[in-house]
Amino acid sequence: MNKVLLIVSAILLSTASVLKAQRVVEILPDVDTLFVCADSSFQLNATTALSYSWSPAAIFDDPSSQTPTITPTAPTLVILDAIVNGFARKDSIFVVPTMPILNLSSDQTGPVCGGEIVTVFANNNVQGQGLTWEFPQNLYILDS
Fold first, then answer.
1. d(Cα 97, Cα 107) in Å, to the nearest integer?
2. pLDDT tier at 132 (50, 70, 90 boundaries)?
3. Which residue among 45, 93, 132, 134 sits deepest, i.e. has the most Cβ atoms within 10 Å of its Cβ?
4. 23-31 CB contacts, 8 Å cutoff, 24+ apart
5. Any idea what DSSP says for residue 141?
6. Are 53 and 78 within 8 A, CB to CB?
């Protein structure tokens, strides 16, 4: 029975040392403004804490979860109140539901010949969040 108690004590000590090193709580992704697609849901995440309280609670599926799903209908300041190592901690993020707009442009002013490098810019209204570039190995532009 003493061996079981020693194992339990070691597990509790290990968990306590991890929480002791942590001083803050953070909302992930770690950005000031988060753009999400309008009419959709998005899962937020927070660093480890003892308890969580997300507000405004009405836009969360579970406002006491570490990983709640948010369904915002308007730009909203989201606040997370948490308890870390017995201390109240807070973080916030501004969530903006939007319909992403993407316009491609280039600084190329003349004809493009084979083998030339052309720089393409992606102008968007979401600060590049969630955008990824994928081009086929050989990109051909055809005259219409």
1. 31
2. confident
3. 93
4. 23/84, 23/85, 23/89, 24/84, 24/89, 24/91, 25/49, 25/80, 25/82, 25/84, 25/89, 25/90, 25/91, 26/91, 27/78, 27/80, 27/91, 27/92, 27/93, 31/93, 31/129
5. -
6. no
What end-to-end distance do the CA atoms of the chain give, in Å?
82
Q: Who contacts 51 (Cβ-Cβ below 8 Å, separation ≥6)?
A: 64, 82, 83
What is the 8-class DSSP label of residue 38? T
Rg, the chain, Cα only: 23
pLDDT in tens, 7-54: 444 444 444 545 455 689 999 989 999 999 898 899 999 999 999 999
pLDDT at res. 104: 83
Supply the pTM of this predicted model.
0.67
Closest CA to 55 of 31, 75, 81: 81
Enter the tokens of residue 47.
């660093």
